[in-house]
Amino acid sequence: MIFSDSELSRVEIVELLGGANDEELRARASRVKSGTVGDKVYLRGLIELSNRCQKNCLYCGIRAGNHACERYELDMPEVEQAVRYAYEQGYGSVVIQAGERSTDEFVDFVERCVLRVKQISNGTLGVTLSLGEQTEAVYRRWFEAGAHRYLLRIESSNAGLYERIHPHAGHSFERRRESLLTLQKVGYRLGTGVMIGLPGQSLQDLADDLFFMRDLGVNMCGMGPYIEHPDAPLGVSEYSLEQRFTLALRMISLLRIMMPRINIASTTALHAIDPCGRERGIAAGANVIMPNITPAIRRSNYKLYNNKPLTDIDLSSFDVQYNHWGDIF
Ligand code: SAH
Ligand code: SF4
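Above: the input record for the complex with iron/sulfur cluster. Below: its predicted structure, written as tokens.
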């Protein structure tokens, strides 16, 4: 298949996801990246604030129903330690991620964390939150405290598949979609993403995921392969790990071509499958890496999926852009 200059159609995308023309796909994504966001890699320091969660997503290792999971929450000195590290290393921003909770204590704590990041860094570190679905009032409070980006994955844009990978109680595709719109309304730069290679997911579904992100006009995307967790009930994918990995790279390249100027993360789940996973994600068209800066003793408890890497990433192979938020708008 030869690339036309016009926009990729759904049929073409499905063919490319099927491996119709890998080399040309990667070369084109690479050209688009160089000509728009450039070839630097932007760093976001990932702070895994807590693995407590009120939700029960069927794929996730820290779901509320997993009683085998030892729960933790960082205290403020641990958060400060991570933030100082990010600041001293010249990171552009930090991502505060955790299981979803809506208690007043949690909302207050997050607000205080955001304020501390801004104080410690004299306002220079950007703050991204990834804390699930919250009310508009809570999104607004955190925004006013200084968080300006939010990551909330749609997980799958196929409503039927979304319903199959989440229990009925407490989860709804429509509410997730509305949360994304609310975040945009409040003023966040919005990031979303999907899991790739879910049981029952087709290439057409993945093509539709790409259109979903384009139509929503997201500013960031983090997507990666689905990886089974032994204590999560969703079960085994019909795609091999290798197939999921390859599909994830193709998704990154396609999204870079469809949305040339957005920030695309090369995610940790890629690294869980291949030791060079994040490097290959960057080569496929991603421009963001999120090294884990959670204090080391807590990391083993934040286990979303099997084989999640616990060690620090070696950044020497990347052309890193330090002291920069990575905004190209
Ligand atoms: N609780 C927040 C943030 C933490 S979960 C939220 O749900 O948004 C962050 C992401 O981890 C989820 O969006 C999901 O896409 C991913 N994840 C969870 N379990 C996974 C698995 N088994 N394989 C791959 N990714 C997974
Ligand atoms: Fe909780 Fe997020 Fe895991 Fe769902 S994916 S169970 S909301 S941590």
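Notes for the reader.
The chain has a mean pLDDT of 94.
Residues 30 and 123 are 33 Å apart (CA to CA).
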